[in-house]
């Protein structure tokens, strides 16, 4: 039986072979547009977000312009992403805060980011990682599910999963690896109907329960 460290090394090597490059899934041009895109992605697919944001960013692609857009107009554009009243209110409010407190710049620290309306730890981690290049390991439901299936975390919650992942994987891998795991889940280990033939990582190092699901 492999140790967690051995399992982690197998994951890194396999994902590097399958996904040597990791393009950022959400279309954006700077930290602000990334922040908005990640906020919109809550309970929504990246594909849907990428369909919606061009119209929104054509209207306003910076905090100064976004703060001037009526919340109702923002909501009308982002409605396909779901939770549009809450998300529109958050986008408007955080834009005002960025203008009033940060001269229109997105802050580069967790505390300030997580204080913004609609921004939780996972969203802040994505912005810190993909927007600013700081080492971070954003854990969404897909990463939580896979690391649990692979026996690399207790699976109690995403907070514990993030701690476990950071302890297992080298810091210099975090920014790329969290995307590789997401890509792997989508391509080879979907939440519904995982397939034994394609899910090589679960087949090799998964928990007994996870391997049973593949049969």
Summarize the structure.
By secondary structure, this protein is an all-alpha fold. The protein is 62% helix and 0% strand. The protein folds into two domains: 4-22 and 137-214, Endonuclease Iii, domain 2, CATH 1.10.1670.10; 31-131, Orthogonal Bundle (Endonuclease III, domain 1), CATH 1.10.340.30.
Main features:
single chain; 215 residues; mainly alpha; Endonuclease Iii, domain 2; elongated
Report on this structure.
It is built from 13 helices and no strands. With 215 residues, the protein is an all-alpha fold. The chain has two domains: 97 residues, Helix-hairpin-Helix base-excision DNA repair enzymes (C-terminal) (Endonuclease Iii, domain 2, Orthogonal Bundle); 101 residues, Endonuclease III, domain 1 (Orthogonal Bundle). It starts with a helix and ends with a helix. The mean pLDDT is 94.
CATH topology of the largest domain: Endonuclease III, domain 1
By helix and strand content, what is the structural category?
mainly alpha
Q: What is the CATH class designation of the largest domain?
A: Mainly Alpha
Largest sheet: none
Uncertain residue ranges: none
CA(first)-CA(last) distance: 20 Å
Q: What is the mean pLDDT?
A: 94
CA-based shape: elongated
